Structure formats: C-alpha cells, structure tokens
Amino acid sequence: xxxxxxxxxxxxxxxxxxxxxxxxxxxxxxxxxxxxxxxxxxxxxxxxxxxxxxxxxxxxxxxxxxxxxxxxxxxxxxxxxxxxxxxxxxxxxxxxxxxxxxxxxxxxxxxxxxxxxxxxxxxxxxxxxxxxxxxxxxxxxxxxxxxxxxxxxxxxxxxxxxxxxxxxxxxxxxxxxxxxxxxxxxxxxxxxxxxxxxxxxxxxxxxxxxxxxxxxxxxxxxxxxxxxxxxxxxxxxxxxxxxxxxxxxxxxxxxxxxxxxxxxxxxxxxxxxxxxxxxxxxxxxxxx
Length: 288
Hints:
mainly alpha; Zincin-like; zinc; HtpX_protease; 4 strands; four-stranded mixed sheet; membrane; 6% strand; 11 helices
C-alpha cells in the first residue's frame, strides 16, 4: 500500500514556511556574529543538518532523549511484533524497516515519530490483539502519509525561531519587573513604562525578524493541520480493514473518559480531534 502525502502534509509545509524563514533569518544573524566573513556557513550547515535526523543512530538517540522511550524487552516484543507484522502485511509494506519502541507512560497511547519509529505504552500491550493492531494501523498511517517525517523536520527547522520567542518571553518578564519598580510613582506611570518597553521589544523583534510576529497567529491553524493528520491516519487504518475495530477502541476510550469535556478554546488548539469526531468520520467511511 503506497500512500501519497495528503492535505495534512501539504498544509503543514505551507504553515511552517513563515517559522522556518524566521529560523533561517535568525541563523543568518548568528552567522554574521560568529563568522562575518563566511556568514553563510551557519545557516547552510543548519539546513543540511535536518537530513541527519533520519540517520538510524541519530533516531535512536532521539528516541531515548526526546521522546523518553526505550526498546522493548523480549517479552514485550513477543506481544508487539506479531501485531505490527500483521498490520504491515495488510499494507504490503516491510515491517522490518521500522523500529518498535516502548514509551515511558502509564497512559494508553501510541505514536509514530521520525522516519521509522513506532512506539506504544505498556498499557497498550494489554489490549486484545485486534485492538492493538488497529492502533498500530493508525500509526503506520502516519508513516505512510509522511506525517512523522514532516513533523520531525518541522521540529528541527523551527528550533531557532522557537528559541527566539522564548528569549522574547524572558525579556517580557523583565519588562514586567521593571514596570513594577515604577509602581510607587503611580499606576499610570507604571503602565506607561510597560507599554513603551513592550512596544520597543516588539519593534526590535520585528526589525530583526518580522516573520516571528506571524507565529502566534498560526497556532490555531497549525493545530487544525495536526488534527487533519489524525483523520488521514484513521482513514489509512480503515483502508487496511481496521475501521470497525478502531471505532470500538475509540468508543471504549470515550466511555472511560466520560466524554470530551474540553472547552472550545482547548479544542481549537488541540493537536488531536475529539474521539467522537474520529468515530463519526470512521463510520462515514464504513457507510461508503
């Protein structure tokens, strides 16, 4: 089964463009500071380093450090590998090219990452075999559609921009602290000082890297793009014949959690759609 990049990948690339450009500008500024004569070396090296993320040894390190994962024990592998191989056979893909991991979490969860990482938590291993296969089929869908690869690349290429935003937040904390110093002179004076310092901060940020000002505006749309990827992975699982079983799994999770109680704002910024919405779409696929 060969999947092509869907709307989630296309939208993720388009929406990441401003942030990546912001990162590139930041790396170019760093290049000028550390090596003015060869300033291009820093941004070019940073750009090429994105491909290193998919080197197997590097992915292993990322699994341990970034995602807090470990390799399965022989007993866990005996439970996990047959289900994974069954899913890969249904998709007509080589299951051996992927690395199976165990995530350190007590919650029932699974996720796909990088170029070949598939992880589940220990509670997932207690599920009936068909349920575990349905969850793994969803994760395979992320890999086949390119979601996991683009997610890792985005993480790397957005790092400098995110670091700049973190620095801006720290400066904002300093601004608030300075404004408090002027409170004895009157609330109006304190507010005026904080406003002037904030405007100065934003002006400096816009001058150095105007793309960074766009990032907060993209957050809801980026969350929508990630939810779109979850729907696409569900669709892949359904095409592999796991649609009805995945509905059963999601229905069980929904019943255990007592329903989706997230506020509207939380739903807008959530990276995962509500279980009830996923169930609805899967049933629509079955109806077709």
